[in-house]
Write a structure and sequence with these properties.
alpha/beta; eight-stranded mixed sheet; about 400 residues
Amino acid sequence: MEISWTQHPIDPRVAKFIAAKIASSNSYSPWSSTGEIENLYDSVSGILPVGLKPEIAKEVVSHIRSVSITEEIIKRHPAARSAAHSKHIQRVYSSRGILEASRAAKVPPMGLFKEMMILAGYSGELTLKAMNNRVNPEVYFQKYDLEQMKIACENDASCPAHQASRLAISEANENTVVEFFRAAKIPFRTQEQLKDSGITAATPDILFDSPVRINGVQCIWLDNKDFTALPQGKVHDSAIKQAERNNRIYGPGAFLTRGTCVLHIGESPVFDTLDLFTRGADGLLVPTSGIQAAIKHIDTPEESFRTEIDMPKSRSKSKSNRRSNSQGKSRRSKRGGSQPSSRSRYSSRSAKATDQMSITQLQIMAKQRGIPFAGLSKQKLIERINKYIK
């Protein structure tokens, strides 16, 4: 089976320009005004993809702004501690508030507030709990500090309240993407099903039972990211580590994003979903059309090969299951033994990999033998499999 849709790769210069604007603005707010997005859009419209609708392009600009702010917060957070020790910054905080102190120190307001509270004698652990509402901040902080904490939170994307809101939207959109692919009637397991099975090391949003060709690339897993993929940064590095885990355990897969400035994250391709969904004012995705419009059914031998991922087995089987298994074995023995399955033809460790085999068949063979294969070309994969033959 093949699923394909139009891609709109974003020129990396768009991300670079917006990141520079964010860095110079000293703004860490999670909120973007219509005017700010319009100005950013006007500045980069000349290098945005021609076929991208203005409303979708502005969504991409908004995503790049959000990721750029996250990167700035991560980058400048370590400087908050030294800034809190500055007598000048302390005076600004006392007389003009946390936002002015943040601007003067050029550090995120939440990080600066935390360090100033610790410096003032508050417990570091309790301060963090109060900022995360795990301890009642109205009881813990004095009136002025409580007001400044609320102001800092309103103007800092790293505030726990904003993070929780963003996570809720991201999870809702993840479910929308999963349901979108479920409509294609392709067998797969979800992240929740993997976790329920005891798997925690690598839990992509979608793990296909058999590889599916997505935009011309064989994929066994998909993971949705509710942002635009940028060429570098901590967010990018985190996704690389995730891709490496998924590829090592399951085989090659891909990321789905709301626009992308890169073709790959690590060795995993990135596909934008801009043509598949629109985004509402509430941040939630809505499918633009049925999945069937993007699906092409291709009758190839590849579809008969199932990639089995080792799942945790129960320690004990029920009596009925054991009886069923023994009866099945008995029936097969009476028929003169079971017929070799399509998978068993490649499970023998003496079987050689050949050019006549498809990439999916080779990947399954490698998986059965415990041979790493992520990112390998067909020829390299053949060489590696045959090298392992004893």
